[in-house]
Specification:
The structure is a homodimer. Chain A has twelve helices and 18 strands. By secondary structure, the first copy, chain A, is an alpha/beta fold. The first copy, chain A, has three domains: 258 residues, Metallo-dependent phosphatases (Purple Acid Phosphatase, chain A, domain 2); 58 residues, no CATH class; 40 residues. In chain A, 36% of the residues are buried. At the A-B interface, helix 2 and helix 4 of A face helix 2 and helix 4 of B. Chains A, B: GO terms for molecular function: 3'-5' exonuclease activity; endonuclease activity.
Chain lengths: 381, 381
């Protein structure tokens, strides 16, 4: 059996204020061609189809167009789950109808413990879920972390699994061994967002989404396909591809990466402004790419962004090396400070970042009470 | 052939700040039972399935549940169009898949000129569309009003219609002969929102949505089913029902109304506060109903709303007769004033209503220029 594994399309994504929809459409056209050529038995999309719970209309139309081509025109079964960026309820509307055409879209945990069976292979579609949701479903107050939640889910699946068959799990999670990029939200405090890869030992293959690089975990049977496109400059050096997996009836895997070529690459360039504005340099460059430019110059520069944009129209971010040094200093300082902070200080900073109103003495007192009462609860439960 | 015709569900509707989702769910359960008992060959939903383009998640879940029961469990074909309250693109996501199960959901005009054929009957599903959209599609600048737009659409349909067959149009529009209620937006300036009923003469039956009363038009072959529930106090005296239509092969119609019973009625009561708080009166009342209360008392009253709510918990609106008289006076005055206003005055009022910033002298000058230039354009084109 041949499967194409992709994830993290993030349709409707804005990067530094620029909608990626055109870029996404161009790469998805290549993806549809790939499906047409490879003729896989199934396509897996491991979550974050959209970038947010209410995506823009253009993103909705693009997703429908692409899925229609793959599932209806090319008659390829599609197995998809919702990720942390999707609204499970909104995305999954209509999934009962989609199944008739072999489009299996799992938004909620209910039902994810039963496999979708295709060509004798069992697919377990496990959408992203907060530990609190899993705790509710199983009425098990011991489930606090993502690891505990996923462990409970896979245990439920294992109860009825036949280890002599090929069993594939599709998930959207932060599995340990991976490295994060700054386009992912910071998931964890003290590691509670991470899941140990041994959760997935019952499965022949685990097709993951969430981390954006295919190198995020190195494991024989657990894999991130990586995102469709580079979605932040921290991903500038990542390969972007989809995975083509061949599985024989004994569960042996052969994995290939197929790269997709964006219209515009996303990359960083560093130098002195005069170098960057020198034709000898810029004539070697793909000028339309999305760029983060770091200038090495010290001292005042007159309107550098507009001078640079005259040559490189798609600069998304400009910074000065000198700023970076400052920033690094500040971050080091911040790290040192963070370690010493009380819950109240942390909340007060959070409040100031998220609102425009003052964190008054009255609010401080109220919050102190809340923190104290939570402490007591934790002690007495 | 038997058809059930409904429209204007407005799922996710807020009435005076209260979500109607529970009420809608209760009535839709009755609707599903009706479908199960009547066993129609099709269910028509003539637009405004949702109340807004991005409905709350509860409304999304309710719609999916109800449609699943009707279309998948009861195996009843469903013919639905988007109304002016729906987002055509968001609602119609997945419609290509739904067709496989006999759920025909038309969001856009493209494709609406070809009928859906069920049991030898042709259904033309014409979603709500602004005249500008129809103008674009047909590249016909003469299309300015809703009447011209619908005339162009039905003319396109008529080209290929067989008048010896039974042809049904499903539409969402303000057809003349109807009377509006204040839960509808005012559509028209100088009648441009209205459509003459003769547009629909080629059709055996025209199943409409948009106006909320089954009495909105009196015509042998054109009908509003009316909304699912009362959605404003101006609808307090309307019957709420769905229409059961039987059509024989010669196109003869037999129409019955089937009423649905809400958990809470929506109605108005008027009286002096002492009367309304008198057990002799209120013991004859369904106290849980949604109420608009008009008090006849003059002079000061101490906290009347809380006194009344102790008996009638679901008062949505309280007014004093005395206020009404004032209001009527003010409205008459306003009407007189409106007639004399310049475009600039009207815009300035609009600006003040819509923004919190001042309509400064500079803005006034700018707007004067804009108005003048538009005037010139109108003169010279």
């Amino acid at each position: 059996m041949k499967i194409i594994h992709t994830a993290d399309w993030h349709l409707g994504k804005l990067v530094h204020g620029v909608y990626m929809t055109d870029q996404q459409e161009a790469v998805l056209e290549q993806f549809v061609d790939l499906v047409a050529n490879e003729k896989p038995d199934a396509v897996i999309i491991a979550g974050d189809l959209y970038d947010r719970s209410v995506p823009p209309v253009e993103a909705v139309q693009l997703l429908e167009k692409v899925l229609f081509k793959i599932n209806v025109e090319l008659k390829t079964p599609v197995l998809a789950i919702s990720g942390n960026h999707d609204s499970a309820e909104r995305l999954a509307f209509g999934s009962s109808w989609y199944r008739h055409s072999g489009f299996y879209l799992q938004g909620k945990l209910a039902g994810c413990f039963e496999p979708v069976r295709l060509n004798g292979i069992n697919f377990y579609l496990v959408p992203y879920a907060e530990p609190g949701v899993v705790r509710e479903i199983f009425q098990d107050s011991s489930i606090q972390s993502h690891d505990e939640a996923m462990r409970r889910i896979t245990w439920e699946i294992e109860k009825n699994i036949d280890p002599n068959e090929v069993n594939i799990l599709v998930g959207h999670a932060f599995v340990i061994g991976g490295k994060t990029t700054d386009s992912e939200r910071i998931l964890s405090v003290g590691g509670s967002g991470c899941i140990d890869s041994d959760c997935f030992s019952p499965f022949t293959y685990t097709a993951l989404g969430h981390l954006h690089s295919p190198d995020a975990i190195r494991h024989d049977t657990i894999r991130y396909s990586g995102s469709l496109l580079k979605y932040s400059f921290s991903e500038a050096k990542q390969r972007k591809s989809v995975s083509v997996i061949e599985i024989d009836s004994k569960g042996n895997l052969a994995i290939k990466e197929k790269s997709l070529t964006p219209l515009k690459d996303m990359r960083e360039i560093t130098g002195y402004i005069d170098e960057l504005l020198d034709p000898a340099f810029y004539e070697t460059q793909r000028l339309e790419d999305y760029l983060k430019v770091t200038l090495l110059d010290e001292g005042a520069l007159l309107d550098p962004i507009n001078k640079l944009r005259a040559i490189y129209p798609n600069i998304l971010h400009l910074e000065r090396k000198i700023d970076n040094i400052d920033l690094e200093k500040r971050q080091t300082l911040r790290l040192v400070q963070t370690e010493r902070k009380t819950e109240l200080d942390l909340f007060s900073e959070f409040y100031n970042e998220m609102t425009t109103s003052e964190f008054t003495e009255q609010k401080r007192e109220l919050m102190t009470e809340v923190i104290d009462s939570v402490r007591k609860e934790v002690l007495f439960v």
